[in-house]
């Protein structure tokens, strides 16, 4: 056991991540860049190896043995995701390449059909560029307007201002469940209920929530929920878009090609049923299968147990960081998940990040794809540490020593 973790066996979790067992610049790796992407447990890596060694084949269209094995493994992930999100049907689970891809699908299919000139789209001040730019693109094309739900200096969305904005009857409200830059957990259920009351369609960007929160899309009652596999111990290049069945049914396809059709003549096509209508071409089969394994892995430990562990790490790190001269925490919302963003005095985040890297500590620096948020805060960026299931208090101790040394060198 490491440190004081008694119920959560972090050593056992950690032993399943071979990548962590290495030195970087001559020091044991401390990986604190989990919000950008988490590392992968052996079970996920083995699932990929197993697939390519034993049953790779294209799916859905083959009658032969391998095609059937691959199809059922891939489709099993859809069933697992349905259960994990508590969606009401498998048809509501669309495979994508990631959160960005899922949001673009909504914008290009739902948005192109439903957004018209003069419409209002609400996004929040906390959004990642991927929940901003797709709406800007469709707004520009259609002559719609974008307004922003403001936040306070702690990084919490201003719910009164939001209520006022909803009186303007937006067509769409899009916000993240958890902010990648500040870690704020937004009151997604309440915000969705208020938006629905105002007649809006609701998109939730769940990229940062899936690894930290137990998400229930029926309880949230959102129309769409998007996430990426790679932030939740799964592979890159695979993601999920959940959509309510009746909303998805009414949407036109976005990408055209094989798989998404029902019949094709030279002149026109009819489209396949859900979910295939939105899954043109050969999908990312291997990573889709491995995503199911990642969800099993997470559920084997328990999302809430992981969250509790990360909460302890966050508290432990925050306490020690407070003692550093010039420490300024960026984002101090009451509800936060696994992220500490900060600045120290006048030190440029990039300089400190580079020194930490030289001491084996991987952190992220910059605007975290939230440039407007950084502008709102009047800063060029932050240094961000973000925790995962396998991080330890011992690593935090090493990080604090490195941080103190880095700050001394740059002050
Ligand atoms: N939304 C949020 C809240 C995110 O944190 C990210 C990625 C995305 C969307 C986009 O996900 P993708 O898998 O489609 O790229 N966030 C980060 C980050 O914080 N640092 O690197 C990537």
List the helices and strands and how they pair.
Elements: H1 10-14, E1 23-24, E2 27-28, E3 30-31, H2 42-55, H3 65-85, E4 93-96, H4 99-114, E5 120-124, H5 133-142, E6 145-149, H6 159-166, E7 172-176, H7 188-197, E8 201-205, H8 217-220, E9 224-228, E10 239-243, H9 245-249, E11 261-264, E12 269-271, H10 285-301, H11 303-322, E13 327-329, E14 339-344, H12 349-358, E15 361-362, E16 364-366, H13 371-377, E17 382-386, H14 393-410
Parallel strand pairs: 3-15, 5-6, 5-7, 7-8, 8-9
Antiparallel strand pairs: 1-2, 4-10, 9-10, 11-12, 13-14, 14-17, 16-17
Helix pairs in contact: 2-10, 3-10, 4-5, 11-14, 12-14
The structure holds ligand 7TS.
Bound compounds, each kind once, are: ligand 7TS
Rounded to an integer in angstroms, the radius of gyration calculated over CA atoms is 22 Å
Order of neighbouring strands in the sheet with most strands: 4-10-9-8-7-5-6
Q: Any idea how many domains?
A: 2
Uncertain regions spanning at least 5 consecutive residues: 1-5
CATH H-level superfamily of the largest domain: Type I PLP-dependent aspartate aminotransferase-like (Major domain)
Q: Note the overall shape.
A: globular
Total count of strands = 17
Distance between the termini: 36 Å
Helical percentage: 40-55%
The second-level CATH architecture of the largest domain is 3-Layer(aba) Sandwich
Major sheet summary line? 7 strands, mixed
Highest CATH level, the class of the largest domain: Alpha Beta
Query: What count of helical segments does DSSP give?
Result: 14
Strand content is: 15-25%
- CATH fold-level assignment of the largest domain: Aspartate Aminotransferase, domain 2
Mean pLDDT: 97
């Amino acid at each position: 056991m490491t440190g004081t973790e008694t119920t959560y066996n972090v050593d056992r979790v950690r032993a399943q991540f071979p990548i962590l067992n290495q030195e970087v610049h001559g020091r044991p790796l401390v990986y604190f860049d989990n919000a950008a992407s988490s590392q992968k447990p052996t079970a996920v890596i083995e699932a990929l190896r197993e697939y390519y060694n034993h049953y790779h084949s294209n799916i859905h269209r083959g009658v032969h043995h391998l095609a059937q094995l691959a199809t059922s493994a891939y489709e099993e992930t859809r069933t697992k995701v349905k259960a994990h999100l508590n969606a009401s049907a498998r048809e509501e689970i669309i495979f994508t390449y990631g959160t960005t891809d899922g949001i673009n699908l909504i914008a290009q299919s739902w948005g192109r059909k439903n957004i018209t000139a003069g419409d209002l789209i609400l996004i929040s001040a906390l959004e990642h560029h991927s929940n901003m730019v797709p709406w800007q693109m469709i707004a520009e094309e259609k002559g719609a307007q974008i307004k922003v739900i403001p936040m306070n200096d702690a990084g919490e969305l201003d719910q009164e201002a939001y209520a006022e904005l909803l009186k303007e009857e937006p067509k769409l409200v899009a916000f993240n469940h958890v902010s990648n830059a500040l870690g704020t957990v937004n009151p997604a259920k309440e915000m969705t209920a208020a938006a629905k009351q105002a007649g809006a369609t609701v998109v939730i960007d769940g990229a940062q929530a899936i690894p930290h929160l137990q998400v229930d899309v029926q309880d949230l009652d959102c129309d769409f929920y998007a996430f990426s596999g790679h932030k939740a111990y799964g592979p890159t290049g695979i993601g999920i878009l959940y959509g309510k069945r009746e909303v998805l049914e009414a949407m036109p396809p976005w990408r055209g090609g094989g798989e998404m059709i029902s019949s094709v003549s030279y002149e026109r096509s009819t489209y396949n049923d859900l979910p295939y209508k939105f899954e043109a071409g050969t999908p990312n089969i291997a990573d889709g299968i491995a995503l199911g394994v990642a969800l099993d892995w997470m559920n084997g430990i328990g999302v809430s147990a992981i969250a509790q562990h990360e909460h302890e790490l966050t508290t432990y790190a925050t306490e020690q960081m407070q003692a550093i001269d010039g420490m300024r925490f960026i984002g101090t919302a009451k509800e936060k998940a696994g992220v500490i963003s900060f600045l120290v005095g006048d030190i440029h985040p990039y300089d400190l990040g580079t020194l930490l890297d030289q001491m084996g500590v991987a952190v992220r620096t910059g605007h975290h794809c939230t440039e407007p948020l950084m502008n709102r805060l009047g800063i060029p960026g932050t240094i961000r540490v973000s925790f995962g299931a396998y991080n330890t208090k011992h690593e935090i101790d090493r990080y604090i020593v490195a941080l103190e040394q880095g700050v001394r060198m740059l002050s």
